[in-house]
């Protein structure tokens, strides 16, 4: 084939990449000349509007986003451990309940869970008063626990059986072996995927605005939405997005480092 075209496979691949890069440059140049940069700056990068959002976007919206995420993650990881152990149990009904829960809530959009918890419980039980923080914790935690349970279960199964056998030979009960030996090692294994779940939960916290809030209770998405209607500018959403990145980018870097460390450890073990 290379004799007919006069080019080797490597040369053809290099030519194809060059064509792709050239097409990309042309597209970017066309977009750059066609865009109305003045209108973009006014609509998305209005520095006067951005200045008026501070410090509330940090001391209220960003703070509340972190609090809501932390509450949901804490509930999710605790209940996720319970679900993972139920899924691994030798008792059939425990496995069935855990499997049904996990598959059900992993299959539902997080928004439906928020609406069900926020409005479904008061409707089903008239006169029931549930604190807003409890609703947020339950809604985020329910979504998180369904995903974390499978991650934790995989981590538990990844712990070498020799560790369990060694603990049992020392006279540890099955429960103590699981709590003191298996689960700590499982969490070291699953730290990278758990960090990814935390990043997803940060973004899911934006659904809190569907259940309403006062100014002091707003998270980033609702803060940006209200400021949008006030200033008639997309700048509040840009600022809110940058605040999300303040949380998610360090978490992404942490996840990558944990993955590299886990891969290095695994190679060293081999």
TrEMBL record:
Protein name: Polar amino acid transport system permease protein
One annotated Gene Ontology cellular component of this protein: ATP-binding cassette (ABC) transporter complex
Record domain ABC transmembrane type-1: where: 62-255
Keyword Transmembrane helix in annotation: yes
Family from the record: Belongs to the binding-protein-dependent transport system permease family. HisMQ subfamily.
Principal location listed in the UniProt entry: membrane
UniProt topology in membrane: Multi-pass membrane protein
Assigned keywords, A-Z: Amino-acid transport, Cell membrane, Membrane, Transmembrane, Transmembrane helix, Transport
GO BP, sorted A to Z: amino acid transport
Transmembrane regions listed in the UniProt entry: 21-45, 65-86, 98-121, 133-152, 173-191, 234-254
Pfam families to which the protein is assigned, alphabetical: BPD_transp_1
PROSITE patterns the UniProt entry points to: ABC_TM1 (PS50928)
Subcellular location: Cell membrane
NCBIfam families: HEQRo_perm_3TM (TIGR01726)
Organism: Crossiella cryophila
InterPro entries listed in its UniProt record: AA_ABC_transptr_permease_3TM, ArtM/GltK/GlnP/TcyL/YhdX-like, MetI-like, MetI-like_sf
A single MF term (Gene Ontology): transmembrane transporter activity
Organism superkingdom: Bacteria
PANTHER family to which the protein is assigned, alphabetical: GLUTAMINE TRANSPORT SYSTEM PERMEASE PROTEIN GLNP, MEMBRANE COMPONENT OF AMINO ACID ABC TRANSPORTER
